From TrEMBL:
Its cofactor is Mg(2+). This is Exodeoxyribonuclease III. The keyword Acyltransferase does not apply. GO terms for molecular function: double-stranded DNA 3'-5' DNA exonuclease activity. The keyword Hydrolase applies. It comes from Streptomyces polyrhachis. Its EC number is 3.1.11.2.
């Protein structure tokens, strides 16, 4: 089996203090994709930077303390690429990919927006550039006999079932009609499958992010924005997908929970 986990750690240094390291030591994952690392490589504690049994690759943001993505793999990658050929975004710590035998796996942190601000315009620019790259990536991989898996925090809830309070968020970034339509294009013309939704087609959630404000975690008032987007061949081999939800609010080490998918090799 091939097991892949994605998680936005909300700052790897803080997560390492709160419980990320014991989780990493215990996980059965073959690949772990991290987002919002928010640290230069030299600032990351050694136990998280070079953990025993893992090969690691980091893409920090040029803007200190922001974004940052990483890949942890049990096997040494054949190739690592930072960015997707974007003059604006390749140094922003939002995309890293690695080639493993028969598979290209990537960690993505798509920008979070805010309606009516430059942040939303930046998100839209990123989306406009990223979809053509996703399509080319899948086509190139198919020509080479490879599958593709792009994991991460996509900062978009695709369907009403992907967030608890969807009626209250129809005008907010993360659930805007144009964002949802773009994600539909990823699944359509891009040729990708939302693996967890394919495994759980009729359920609410399972949510992967809950604000720290109020009792959102306790009442499961969450969003499903952390996705495994796979090429068709790999998606067809998925046998299990689940959210590693903490047992209690106090035991959380991020405002996101790890999302794990198990594939037949």
């Amino acid at each position: 089996m091939l097991t892949v986990t994605t998680v936005n750690v909300n700052g790897v240094r803080a997560a390492a203090r709160k419980g990320f390291l014991p989780w990493l030591a215990a996980t059965d994952a073959d690949v772990v994709c991290l987002q919002e690392v928010r640290a230069e490589v030299a600032q990351i504690p050694a136990e998280a930077r070079e953990p025993e049994g893992w090969f690691t690759a980091f893409a920090p943001a040029a803007e200190k303390g922001r974004a940052g993505v990483a890949l942890y793999t049990r096997r040494e990658p054949e190739r690592v690429r930072v960015g997707f050929g974007s003059a604006e975004f390749d140094a922003s710590g939002r995309y890293i990919e690695a080639d493993l035998p028969g598979l290209t796996v990537a960690s993505l942190y798509l920008p979070a927006g805010q309606v009516g601000t430059e942040r939303q315009e930046q998100k839209e620019r990123f989306m406009a550039e990223f979809l053509p790259y996703l399509t080319r990536l899948r086509e190139r991989a198919a020509a080479d006999g490879r599958e593709v898996l792009v994991c991460g925090d996509w900062n978009i809830a695709h369907r009403e079932a992907d967030l608890r309070n969807w009626r209250g968020n129809v005008k907010n970034s993360g659930f805007l009609p144009e964002e949802r339509a773009w994600l539909s294009r990823v699944l359509g013309e891009g040729g990708y499958t939302d693996v967890v939704r394919a495994l759980h087609p009729e359920v609410e959630g399972p949510y992967s992010w809950w604000t720290y404000r109020g009792r959102a975690f306790d009442t499961d008032t969450g969003w499903r924005i952390d996705y495994h987007m796979a090429s068709a061949g790999l998606a067809g081999r998925a046998v299990k997908g689940f959210v590693e939800r903490a047992a209690s609010h106090e035991e959380r080490w991020s405002d996101h929970a790890p999302v794990t998918v198990v594939f037949e090799r």
